[in-house]
Amino acid sequence: MVLMAIASGTFGGLLIYIIQPQDRMIASVFCWISLAILVAAFWDLKFRTSKRRQQFTREMRSIYDRYCDSEQAFGFDDHKWTHETKAGKYEASWSALTTAAERPNVIHWSTKDHSIVLPKRVIGAMPRSDSGARDEKSALAQLHGLALGPLNNGSSFQLGIIDYLLTEIPSLWRRHPFLMAEAHLVGVLWVLMIANGMYNSVGPGVVFGWIIASVLLFLTITGQLWYFTTKYFTAPPDSKRWQSGFSDRGVRTSNAEIELFSAWTTFRKFKETSRAFLLHIGPTNYHIYPKRCLSSDRQTTLRNLLKASVAADN
Fold first, then answer.
1. Can you tell me the distance from the alpha carbon of 148 to that of 154, in angstroms, rounded to the nearest whole number?
2. Which of 162, 180, 184, 205 is 20 to 30 A off residue 259, Cα-Cα?
3. Quick count: other Cβ atoms within 10 Å of Cβ 247?
4. What is the rounded distance in angstroms from the CA atom of residue 81 to the CA atom of residue 145?
5. In 3-state terms, what secondary structure has residue 101?
6. For residues 299 and 276, is the Cβ–Cβ distance under 8 A?
7. Measuring CA to CA, which residue among 226, 224, 229, 219 is closest to residue 187?
8. Strand, coil or helix: 57
9. pLDDT tens digits for range 259-297
């Protein structure tokens, strides 16, 4: 919508500049249309952003009220863990975990119907299932191993700009083929309208008009490239460099900021492209694992594991 507003405003401005004074009132309609589209685009963006923020706040508040705003009890052994809050007592085996993560100050995990956030400062004070106490370091190491599991035979991944662009741009076209085609068609039509007006015109504004038409055509064709390039370079560095290990249980990932475990049940599907394996956690969200970071044998092993554990996106 923003590009359409810019194109409409530019076209209207050029018409006002090159046509006769008595016709400029009609030509100014394009400028008003441009302003209306621009206002609508920013209002829609602000509205949707505010709505998503409010929904996220409500969800986080609901989770806090349910699990964290009162005294809690937690215990674990090598086979299961228990969590007791005012909502009741929950018990599950470690194999039932769907996600787990360790951050600098907390470790948290979840099953399909329960989640827990455990501050590391309280881990050393927890009782053992048998008699005796345990120190914080050994308790944290044990809990770390049970919740996240070992990073055995992990591979180092680094997401380069070429891998990112050649994954994101085709994925965008696959998800929204008609919308992308329509947006490009509209941009090209606006450029043709401007070019047609310049073709039979003379004067100092003609050169400027051709420059504007060329710039709009360039932006129409390459807009997605600049968007994803900006997105790549503004992303945190740790999100582009990590280690991952794959097992029958799920995916174990580690970088400088977080250690994460995701069971296979958390992934909706996987897709293999010429450059990467994509593990989808939602309709538009996925993890990218570049193939160039894996040997041929590891690619084959991972491909077979994914086929056995996650639905393929054909």
1. 14
2. 162
3. 16
4. 13
5. strand
6. no
7. 219
8. helix
9. 999 999 999 999 999 999 999 998 888 999 999 999 999
Residue 266: alpha-carbon gap to chain centroid? 15
Tokens 């047609």 sit on residue? 196
Residue 137 CB partners (closer than 8 Å, separation 6+): 124
Q: Which candidate, 176, 211, 215, 186, places its Cα nearest to that of 1?
A: 186
Alpha-carbon distance 169 to 172, whole Å? Answer: 5
pLDDT in tens, 21-50: 655 565 566 666 666 766 776 676 677 777
Structure tokens, 19:
């046509």
Contact by Cβ (8 Å): 115, 74:
no
* Alpha-carbon dihedral angle through residues 166, 170, 175, 176, given to the nearest 10 degrees: 120
Question: How long, in residues, is the chain?
Answer: 314
Q: Rounded distance, CA 17 to CA 24, Å?
A: 8
What are the beta bridge partners of residue 75? 82
How is residue 249 annotated by DSSP? Answer: S
CB 34 within 8 A of CB 1: no
Written as six digits, the tokens of 41 are 């685009």
> For 17-21, 60-64, 302-306, 307-311, which range has the lowest pLDDT when averaged over its residues?
17-21
Residue at 241: amino acid letter: R
Residue 114 to residue 23: CA distance in whole angstroms = 68
**CA–CA–CA angle 262, 266, 271 (5° rounding):** 100
